[in-house]
Amino acid sequence: MFDPIRAIDIVEEMSVADLVSGFSGCAFGAGRIATACEIYREMLEDSDCLVFFGLAGAMVPAGMRKVVSSEIKAGNIDVLVTTGANIVHDVIEAIGLPHLKGTEVVDDVKLYKSKINRIYDVFLPESYFSNLEEWLQGEVFPNLPQAVSIRELCSAIGERLEDPHSILKCAFDAEVPVFCPAVQDSIIGLQAWLYKQSNSFTIDALADMQELIDLCYEAKRAGAFFVGGGVPKNFILQSMLLTPKDFDYAIQLTMDRPETGGLSGATLDEARSWGKIGENAKSVTVYSDATITLPLIVAAAKDGGKRVPTS
Amino acid sequence: MFDPIRAIDIVEEMSVADLVSGFSGCAFGAGRIATACEIYREMLEDSDCLVFFGLAGAMVPAGMRKVVSSEIKAGNIDVLVTTGANIVHDVIEAIGLPHLKGTEVVDDVKLYKSKINRIYDVFLPESYFSNLEEWLQGEVFPNLPQAVSIRELCSAIGERLEDPHSILKCAFDAEVPVFCPAVQDSIIGLQAWLYKQSNSFTIDALADMQELIDLCYEAKRAGAFFVGGGVPKNFILQSMLLTPKDFDYAIQLTMDRPETGGLSGATLDEARSWGKIGENAKSVTVYSDATITLPLIVAAAKDGGKRVPTS
Amino acid sequence: MFDPIRAIDIVEEMSVADLVSGFSGCAFGAGRIATACEIYREMLEDSDCLVFFGLAGAMVPAGMRKVVSSEIKAGNIDVLVTTGANIVHDVIEAIGLPHLKGTEVVDDVKLYKSKINRIYDVFLPESYFSNLEEWLQGEVFPNLPQAVSIRELCSAIGERLEDPHSILKCAFDAEVPVFCPAVQDSIIGLQAWLYKQSNSFTIDALADMQELIDLCYEAKRAGAFFVGGGVPKNFILQSMLLTPKDFDYAIQLTMDRPETGGLSGATLDEARSWGKIGENAKSVTVYSDATITLPLIVAAAKDGGKRVPTS
Amino acid sequence: MFDPIRAIDIVEEMSVADLVSGFSGCAFGAGRIATACEIYREMLEDSDCLVFFGLAGAMVPAGMRKVVSSEIKAGNIDVLVTTGANIVHDVIEAIGLPHLKGTEVVDDVKLYKSKINRIYDVFLPESYFSNLEEWLQGEVFPNLPQAVSIRELCSAIGERLEDPHSILKCAFDAEVPVFCPAVQDSIIGLQAWLYKQSNSFTIDALADMQELIDLCYEAKRAGAFFVGGGVPKNFILQSMLLTPKDFDYAIQLTMDRPETGGLSGATLDEARSWGKIGENAKSVTVYSDATITLPLIVAAAKDGGKRVPTS
C-alpha cells in the first residue's frame, strides 16, 4: 500500500534531472522537490492549462531573473504576477546597472554613508536610482497615455527595454501580461507619483482586472507556480474566485510557515477550502530557499528525467 | 561594561507590565520584548513623533482588531497602512458576521463542501461574502465619487460602519488615514471591479501618495510599528525616501527570517543602509508570533512599568 | 458548532492571567497560549499526574533559570530532563559568575581575542570556565563514587550548590531527579573526562534508566512540558515506551518546524502514532520564542484566571 | 571591489555541478550552496584535513543514508557523530525493513491503531521494533564485552551488518569511528537497558572521549560538515576545545534560526568567539532543507565543476 523509501544514490557527472529522479524515492523536502517537478512537467504538457507564475521576494537581485525570463521565452509562463520590487530590479539590471554580491555581515550605517543600499547579501549603489529615475522620466512616462492600467505600465516598460534577459522585455515580446497589484509600493510607484506632480497621469488600480478575469474564463485548466507568497500568491488565487473554475495544479516554494496564519505561509490545502484550488488538483509546497529550489525544479523539468535506478 | 543577565522572577498576580519589566534583564526574544516596549513608550511620549502602524498578516481574523482599534482611539496611531485582507475581515466583523474558532487539523475539501473557508484555525462561512457584497454594493460604492483614492475608499467604508471596535470606523472617527496599496488584491478589490462593470468608477493608485508624503514632510520625527512585513512594511519605509528624513523609532514583530532576502524578514538594520531608518534610531525586531507579542507589548506599554526587583 | 472569535481587549493594569484569558477567544499563537495555560493548570491540578519537564535550548543564559527553579520549588515539576549546556550555565551562575547581556551584532573574532564567548546576545568571559573547572575538580568529582549515573552526577552537583535560584540545587532539595542523557556533550562532560585521566571514574549511560522507568510505571497519569525539542523531548517521550502508558497532557514551546522531519519540530500528534501521547491526551504546541512564552504561561497559570469580558 | 551578481542560466541536460557553478554568481541561499560546495571540495582536497561529519535530524528515514555511506566509502568522512535515531533507522533498513513513503496529512490516532509509526511523511510498522529487538538481543549485545564505549557499540553493530549501504557497516569497514553521545536517548539505548536487566553490562559515557581527542590532536587541520544541529554539532565543535586547534573549514545545513539562541540555529561565526572555528576558517551556513541541499552539494562536489558561462 505504501512504497518503500528509496535512498538516493549520488553518482558522478549526475544531471539535475537524475538528482530530482533520485529525490522521488525520498521523503521530507527531497520528496517534495520530486513532486513539484512532476507537477510542473504535467502543467507544461497540459496544452489546455494556463500557467500563472507568482514571483514575490527579491528574486531578481539574487540572480534569478534569467530563470524567469527564459521560462517566459520558452512559453512556460502565460501570466506573470509580481511585486514592484522585482520589476524595479529587473529594470535596473536591464538598463545596465548590475547588482553586486556583498555580504550580510556588515555595518549598515557605514554602507549608508558609502551610498550603498543592501538587500541581504546584495549591494546596489544608491546612484542607480538616479539612473532609473532618468530613464523612467525620460523614456517611459512621457510616452504613456494619461490613464494606464498597471498591466499596461508593465508592458510599456518592457517594450522599451533591450536586454534580452529582462523579465519585462521577454514578457512584452511573448505577449505575456504582467500584473503588479501594489506597484505604487515601489520606486516605480514613487517615480510615477513624481511624474504626476507636473503631468496629468493616473494609474487605475482596477483597469486590468477585466483582462485577468477574461484569461481565467477562457482557460480550460489552470496551474499556479508560486515563488514566495505575498500579493502575487493572493492575487493569483483570488483571480479564480469570479469564475466557476479553480486551479488544477499548484506549486509553492517558500520558507514561510503556516502557524502564523498569514497567507504567505498558508498551505495550499487551505486554498481548497476557499475553492481556489480544486478538490482533485495536484499541489505541493516545498519549504526551502526558493533561490535553490526554483532553478533546481526548472532545470530538472527541462529534461526527460530518466529515472536513476536506486535500491 | 556589559550588564549581567537578571533572571526573570515569576510572582503571583503578576501584571503584564511587571512581566515585561522582568524581561528587561533577559536575553533572546524576552529581552527584545522589553526593548520593543521601551521603544513603543518612547515613541508615544515623543509628542513630535508621527506614528505609522503597518498591519500585515491575518491579524483581524485572529482576534487582534480591538488591539489596533483601541490604539487608534487612544491616539497612539497616526497613520495606518494595511492589507486588503485585514480591511475585508474588519468589515465582515463590523457588519455583524463573526469569525469562528475552528482548527487547522481538518479536511479542506470537506470544509469546501460545507461552504466554510479556512484561515489556519479560523473558519468563516462562504455566505459572509454575499453579505459583504450586498453591503458594499448597496451602501458604499454608489455613494462614492467616480474617482477615488484608496485612502478615500478606506475612509468612506469606515464612515459607514457603526461597530465601535472596527479599525476602519475608529480610524475614520479619529481622522487617521488608512492606506492599502494593494487593495485590488482582496475581496474589496473584486467588489470594486464588479461595481465598475456597470458604473463609471476608478481607483487611482497614485492619488493618495501626496497626502502620505505631506504627512512625512510635516512630521518632526517618525516612528514605525510593523506587525508582519509585506506591503505595509515596505510602503511605510519608502514613504520617507522622498523626504530628507528617516525613521527615529522602529519596531517589527515577525516570524519571517532574514536569510531568504525578502523584505518581510529583512532586519531593520538593512533599512538603515537605505536611509529609511536613521543612524541613531532605536529599533528592534521580535521574532515571535505577533498575535502573542502585539497584545503583550501594547498592554505593557499602557502601564508605568514599575520594575520588578530581580536578583 | 464553532465558537466565535472573541477579539482580545487590552485594558489598563492588565494582569498576565487576564491577558491569557483574553487570548482564549483568539486564534493562531494567541489561542495556543491560552490552551497551553489551560493544559498546564489541569496538569498541575491533577494530583495523580507526574510532570516531566524537558528543558532544551540555552534557556539559562537567557535568564530563564528562576522560572524553572521556582516551578521546582513549587512542586510543579517532578522529573527534569535537560541538556549539558543548561546544567553548565546553571552552575556558572550558581558559583557567582553572571552571564552578561551583550549583542548579536558583533565581530566574533574580536570577541575571541577579548576572551569573551557568545551565545546569541549573551556574553560570558572565557575565564568562567577556569572557575568552573576549579570548582568541579575540587568540590565535585573527588567526592563522587568511582561509578555514577548521570542522574547521580546531577544530584551531586546540586547538593554542593548554595544559590537558592539554581535549578540543580532546587532539584536536589526537592528530590526531583535530573536526567541529562548527553552530559558528555558539554563542558561538564569534558571536565569529567579530564578527571578520569588521573582517577578511576566512569559515568554509566544506562544506570539511571531503571529509575526513570520506575517513575513512569508508578505514575497514574503523566504530563510533559517541553521547552524546545532535542534530546530532552525525545528522552521524555520514549520513557513511556516501556510501559503500557502514555502521556495524558503535553505542551511544547518551540520555533522549530515540522516540515524538516526532525523530532524537535515534530508535532505532538506525530507522537500519538507512536503511542507516546495518548489518544485522548490534551496537547498543544506554541510556535513562538520560549523565552517569551514560558514566563507568560507560568505566570498566568499561577493565577485563577478570572476571564476578562470581551465582546 | 564587489563582483556583479551573475544571473544563473538554466540549460538543457544541465549537470548538478553546472547548476552549482551557476549558483556561484547568485546571492541568498543559492550563493551559499556554491560556497558550501567550494568549501567541501577544498576540505576534501586538503589531505591534512580531518573531516568530521555531524548527522542530526531524521536523515536516514528520509532516504539520505546512501549519501552518507557512500561518502564514508569514498574516504570523504573521517569521523562521524550522529544521533541514536539515525543509528536505529540505519540498522532497521540494514536488517531488511524498509521505511515507507507515507504522508503527513493523516490521523495519527488511526495510524497508532494500525500499528504504524510516523516520522513526518515517513511511515514504519511498529513490528519493525520487535525485529530490531530480536537482532540486537540475539546478535549484538551477547557478543559485547561487559563494558563498552559508545564508539565500540556503534562499531560492533556495524561489524554485524551486511547491507553495503548501511552507514554503520561502511563506517566499520572503513575504520571510521562513529560517536553517538546520547545513545541512551534511542531505541538502541532502551534495548541496551533491557539487556542490562539480566546481564552485567555498562556503557561508559566517557570512554570514547580519549579517542576523539587523540584524533583532534593528531589532525593537522580539521573540517566540519554539520547536517542539522543538535548534539552532533556541539560534540564536534567542543572536541577542539581541549586542543590548541580549531576548525579550518565548516559547513552547516539547517533550517533552525539564530534568534532563539539555541546551538542548533547558532551561526558558525558564534563558534569563532569560542575559538572552536578559527579566525581565518572558511565557513558557511545554508538555511534550507538538508534533504535537498546535502545531495546537491555532494553531487556537485563529485565533479570538477566546469563553470557555466553566464552573462
Entry keywords:
homotetramer, 311 residues, alpha/beta, three-stranded antiparallel beta sheet, 13 helices, 11 strands, disordered C terminus
Ordered list of secondary-structure elements with their pairings:
4 copies of one chain form a homotetramer.
Chain A lengths: L15 H8 L4 H18 L3 E7 L9 H9 L5 E4 L1 H11 L5 E2 L6 H6 L2 E4 L2 E4 L2 H13 L6 E3 H10 L7 H7 L4 E2 L7 H12 L3 E3 L4 H10 L2 E7 L2 H10 L7 E8 L13 H6 L3 E11 L2 H13 L9
Parallel strand pairs in A: 1-2, 1-9, 2-7, 6-8, 9-10, 10-11
Antiparallel strand pairs in A: 3-5, 4-5
Helix pairs in contact in A: 1-2, 1-13, 2-13, 3-8, 6-9, 7-8
Structure description:
The structure is a homotetramer of 311-residue chains. With 311 residues, chain A is of the alpha/beta class. In chain A, 43% of the residues lie in helices and 18% in strands. Chain A has 13 helices and 11 strands. Chain A has helices at 16-23, 28-45, 65-73, 84-94, 108-113, 128-140, 150-159, 167-173, 187-198, 209-218, 230-239, 268-273, 290-302, and strands at 49-55, 79-82, 100-101, 116-119, 122-125, 147-149, 178-179, 202-204, 221-227, 247-254, 277-287. Chain A has a 6-stranded parallel β-sheet with strand order 7-2-1-9-10-11, with helices on both faces. In chain A, strands 3-5-4 form a 3-stranded antiparallel β-sheet. Chain A has a two-stranded parallel sheet with strand order 6-8. In chain A, α12 (268-273) links the parallel β10 (247-254) and β11. In chain A, α3 (65-73) runs parallel beside α8 (167-173). The longest helix of chain A has 18 residues, at 28-45. The first copy, chain A, is globular. The model of chain A is unreliable at 305-311 (pLDDT under 50). Chains A and B meet through α5, β4, α9, β8 and α10 of A and α5, β4, α9, β8 and α10 of B.
